[in-house]
Design a protein that fits this description.
By secondary structure, the chain is of the alpha/beta class. It has nine helices and 33 strands. Helix 2 packs antiparallel against helix 6. The chain binds (2S,3S,4S,5R)-3,4,5-trihydroxy-6-oxo-oxane-2-carboxylic acid. The site of (2S,3S,4S,5R)-3,4,5-trihydroxy-6-oxo-oxane-2-carboxylic acid has 9 residues, from loops.
Length: about 650
Amino acid sequence: MCRAADFVILIRGAEFSPHSTGRQRFHGTKFLQMRCTCQAASLLVFLLSLAPLLFGASSPASTLLVGADRRPAITLDGDWHVIVDPYDNGYYDFRMQPRPDGYFRNEKPDASGKLVEYDFAKSATLSAPGDWNSQRDSLFFYEGTIWYEKDFQYQGKPRTRTFLHVGAANYVSHVWVNGQKACDHEGGFTPFDCEVTTLLHDGENFAVIYVNNQRKRDGVPTLNTDWWNYGGLTRDVSLIETPDTYIDDYSLQLQHGTGSTIAGWVHVVGGKPGIEVALKIPELGVVQKSLADAQGRASFSFPTPKLQRWSPGNPKLYDVEVEAGEDRLRDSIGFRTIEVQSDNILLNGKPIFLRGVAIHAEAPFRSGRAWSQQDAETLLGWAKDLGANFVRLAHYPHDERMTRLADRMGLMVWSEVPLYWMIEWDNPATLANATNQLQEMIRRDRNKASVVLWSVANETPNTPARLSFLKSLIAAAHAEDPSRPVTAALLVTTLPDSSDGMRTKVLDDPLGEYLDVLGCNEYIGWYEGPPELANRTKWQSKYNKPLIMSELGGGAKFGLHGAPTERWTEEYQAEVYRQQIAMLKQIPFLRGLSPWILMDFRSPRRELPGIQDFYNRKGLVSNEGQKKKAFFVLQEYYKTLSSQSK
Ligand code: GCB
């Protein structure tokens, strides 16, 4: 039996949780609508329609401006005043109802006697970009809310729209400008842009951003991860101005099969249907024009006979100019094809082997979440040193500087969403959130030639609910970007030893049927038996598809030496790599590998004193930049592979 009063409470719960975004609120109410079978259904619908009036209008949606890093920006990076708010006191009153006088109003105690129990101006600062954990000792393990506030000057311009751009904030954010709600966002690794045109004043302004990094059972990722839950404004924050009519998205790719036809589209917001969109590639003498349709999308397809295709050996990028009305955007884009044909991966129509390494967004030398150009150059520089032509950017989208630099350095990229280990596979709101994070990742990076694979999950359990969830994500990835193969890091079944002492690992996860490329994580020699178990292991696959060994490896503390049988020594780790490489050479359908991992990274699960000290030590390079012996073992293998491919 449902009672109207219950609905109100439920609606309020769904509406007002500061940990739910506009998107989730919609799903929450939709869920209620579906479940209610009692006669009060029509009353519910009526109450739902009133909800925005009763409890405040829902937040404006955020967007994602493609090529945001290519537009002139007014930076809001630097010091922000912060209030650490473990009890969400700035959001809720003592009945856990949202406070109309929340911290977003940025009030100040003054002589009038009004009670104001916070003061941004007198609060300490944290720097953005930057996680809070590595900036203040007391925040090292902090998981909760921090309010950020920044004052800035602004002068409006005619016929201009202004967006507050956040490169990433982990995990839930709510944004206000001058006390007015600008947008909400969920997901710690993708950018978002809130339109603030009408919220800004000429002169003094302030922005307040609530960031909460509490792990949530229904979140993506969920409660358990093997990396540090760095919170805060972890990437750049800026104001981006566009003309009234602006380009928010575009997709330009080399068409499969043709080798020289560029095809794609440009999406324009705010323009009249039929607005002319121009696309220029000066170096190729291309000037193309197309009219936007009623949805604002202008399509292009044209031959470029003189095109040099992007590849690791020739990471050629072209200046591409896109124009619509007064808006002009200039990007650097490489053109190449990436396809799967039976168990081969074809780059520009030719089979390619991916000599890779996995990378976490852990900052070299200083620790914390990586974001800077220097971080990207160091990490990708080490990958190049290793002889890699491929990197797996684990386990979430990294800062855009990484994919930009990979474009320039000629490194192919596996980019993934943080669907890690366990997720609430039965929860429609979690699926909506995962799909949104996937679409944001694709939208930001689909014009990067370096990105050759989208990955939808890592080491997820083989259950019907997981299969249906991930099938839906794979379909969403294909719909958003039909040009790239989709993969996931799977686990395998191990068959018992046969009479000759050999054992077999079989790639038989039913998800394999829906993926274009199979990823597989295995830790023979570390979690599974001694390193030499690798030479008693054969591999089979149920699917005629390419395999990338997306993880393998073992831990070593840099500078710790001993016998190759002694765990945590560099010699042990090197032995794991030697045995693994010998085994990998025998797998006929192996098309690449991304051993775990380039550099030691912080993890709360790694507690062994003197060895781990909260670092996962599987790095080939220490967090201080020292190369371990295994680095050189893998480097040797990559040298041989690279000379064979010439
Ligand atoms: C894995 C996970 C990775 C971990 C790694 C490890 O299988 O995918 O996130 O960090 O193992 O070191 O155990």
